[in-house]
Specification:
The structure is a homodimer. Helix content of chain A is about 10%, strand content about 25%. Chain A has five helices and 17 strands. In chain A, strands 14-4-5-12-11-13-3-2-15 form a nine-stranded antiparallel β-sheet.
Amino acid sequence: MRFALPCSGIASALLLGVLASGARAEQAQPAPAPRALGMAELLAATAPADWRVVDPAEMLVMELASGRVVIELAPAFAPVHVANIKQLVRDGYFDGLTINRAQDNFVVQWGDPDEQSPRSLKGARATLDAEFTTRAFTIPFTPLPDADGYAPQVGFSAGMPAARDSAASQAWLAHCYAMVGAGRGNAPESGNGSELYVVIGHAPRQLDRNIALVGRVLQGMEQLAVLPRGSGPLGFYERPEQRVPIRSIRLGADIPHAERPRLEVLRTDRPAFEQLVELRRNRRDEWYQRPAGYIDLCNVPIPVRTAAPSTVN
Amino acid sequence: MRFALPCSGIASALLLGVLASGARAEQAQPAPAPRALGMAELLAATAPADWRVVDPAEMLVMELASGRVVIELAPAFAPVHVANIKQLVRDGYFDGLTINRAQDNFVVQWGDPDEQSPRSLKGARATLDAEFTTRAFTIPFTPLPDADGYAPQVGFSAGMPAARDSAASQAWLAHCYAMVGAGRGNAPESGNGSELYVVIGHAPRQLDRNIALVGRVLQGMEQLAVLPRGSGPLGFYERPEQRVPIRSIRLGADIPHAERPRLEVLRTDRPAFEQLVELRRNRRDEWYQRPAGYIDLCNVPIPVRTAAPSTVN
């Protein structure tokens, strides 16, 4: 007899046709009908228009020895940071630098570990506007039906988990798993995008509105999430040889067409995504005894898939 | 210039005296006074009575090649499962078995991967009562001041994140990071504790009241969280050689005194913990620009420390 938890998360959701029937022996037995629509069926039933091709001009591709990590940038929320990061990337700033920090259930962080003679920022700026929030009316926003403790309202903006305070006319990205931010010192304007971090554990939502989030990892999280945790303060690696080399970070648009990642993200402003949210708010898979009737922002998967060749731009 | 995010989590909280002063060059500069009480100071100011020695009779010690993982059991919530797990452990059931599943942002799971000729359960039972909830009046409960979307009330019970529904007289453990549960098939009574999983990502609270949680990892999470993710359905490893060997799982009480882990957990029913919760609800560290005024259950760290020799039982 086998015991299997149900599936979860983005990666699973993309195993179209696999999870619905179940991969474990036990689940291969005939299921009682009728059965609720599953995530796999939902995604299989989407139309091409339910998906958005990721713009290579807003995509970072990090090359590690273990493979590629693909990040989608969020210029609508942090235009100044995103522009500075693009400048750094185009100057080859990150090439040959390292991942220097892995703090369990918190973040993995990369940049220049050399405090004595740091790498030149070249054409990029050393300090930037804080960009912890943006003007709410400037961005699209699809609300989640459920309440949130950290913000008056939460939802999704162009495939990113976000929040807003309509009374204050502010919107901001939320620190969910796989979100990428620009480290900063104690001064709010001290960040410049040359130190980037990604959330690898339970969503540290207390960081929302305290630091600039600049994007989301679409592919390759499983490479960052498994890095050995650093034993130094804040999870920094204590010995230089523990740091993880970054071969390069390139803008998607600067990568030859044939080698460029071709990804699509499920649009978060269409009925298919609304169905997905409801499917996850109330899990009807055979395994579940009690649907939750609720979902927190960071538990909503935002599916990513490799684009069909015809849809590549 | 260095950019560092602030610290988070249990491990950080235990770096007494390190995080308060800051380990990064930037933070070594004189800080403006007055400064708010930090986590390190709070823990340093606790009294011995604020801590609870972990009972070796309710402790599992898993030995991996990478080191020890220490789990505290929760017999108040899942007495039948905990008793069965202890029986399995005392029969050496897990010794030589493997970790078979690592699904990114979800769970790591271990047990017997051999479906053809599974290991005998010996004196343990093959099926158990569901134990997804327990009677609320039988357990201690310290409420969190903040609301939760998944339960009428959340809080802590003897060092475990928990929830309750007073109207229904039910209480249950919550699927936060590091919580350990007993896998089951589709039938509610199909779990028996021979397949165990631990949460390694954002809290999958939708599992609450759907499966029996049996304890919490107190030490060694960083070994489980970094395991390579499985490429098979649900994150199962596809090749036998990818599985991670378990040398043994022993009950703490069965380990010779000198080799036994000696851990203490901050009591969750005393003013020191209440202070800790408030400290995390509104972060006043110099780095923060905007305290959240809220904390979700699974973001509250429950500190663990190695016991002083005199307090060992």
